[in-house]
Amino acid sequence: MIDHSDDEVAERLATEAGKLLLGVRDEFADASSADRKAAGDKRSHDFLMEALATERPADAVLSEEGADDPVRLTAQRVWIVDPLDGTREFSELDRDDWAVHVALWEDGELVAGAVALPAQGVTLATPDVAKPPHPPAAPRIVISRTRPPAIALQVRDALNGTLVEMGSAGAKVAAVVQGRADVYVHAGGQYEWDSAAPVAVARAAGLHTSRIDGSPLRYNRPDPLLPDLLVCRPELAEVVLSVTG
């Protein structure tokens, strides 16, 4: 039986961490971007670790900003969190394409997840995520504004699509969920915390999620490196995988 209280915890903690980060942004508005980044990473991480220790004390946690505790490898339930996804975008006060990720892995599967987009005032969370609206004629492939991968350009050409520049991984997946983009393909190196919550949310919206060769995404592995990712509308998956697989 699915415990939807876990969904509520993921959504609430991601949202609250996002509000905290907006406060950090205001507090450090006149500071250097490096100080702003450091404060955001630390305060959001500390908040999430304390909150999860209080609300789910028996569960393990894997956080980008924390030391990797090997106890998670024998745990039944592991929260996978990115306290601040898109630190660079967070540090730029006019950008809203950064996120907070909170996901729960249990017995081999992602069972709950939330992606907060604090500067947009939005949190996308399981179990109820609206399916994206009907796409435009030319599919939109969302890419990094600084490091567009060659594989995304190949997908664009195969789909006769267009490119949309955006910041963090969570913001990119959220754009596909919201219908502001149609494909997110990444092959430049990521970790489990970059995609766990976004993938949980994307699945709840009925989107295709996999490695770029079509194999399943696996979480809570000994090495948290998960170097590539595909999230797209299901009707586009076959064509995209013919390019990336």
Please give a structural write-up.
With 245 residues, the protein is of the alpha/beta class. The chain folds into two domains: 120 residues, Fructose-1,6-Bisphosphatase, subunit A, domain 1 (Fructose-1,6-Bisphosphatase, Chain A, domain 1), CATH 3.30.540; 105 residues, D-Maltodextrin-Binding Protein, domain 2, CATH 3.40.190. The chain contains seven helices and ten strands. The strands form two sheets. Strands 1-2-3-4-5 form a five-stranded mixed sheet, with helices on both faces. A five-stranded mixed sheet has the order 7-6-8-10-9, with helices on both faces. The protein is globular and about 50 Å long. The model has no long low-confidence stretch (mean pLDDT 95).
Q: State the shape.
A: globular
Distance between the first and last residues' Cα: 35 Å
**Helix coverage percent of residues?**
25-40%
- Write the CATH fold name of the largest domain: Fructose-1,6-Bisphosphatase, Chain A, domain 1
Low-confidence stretches: none
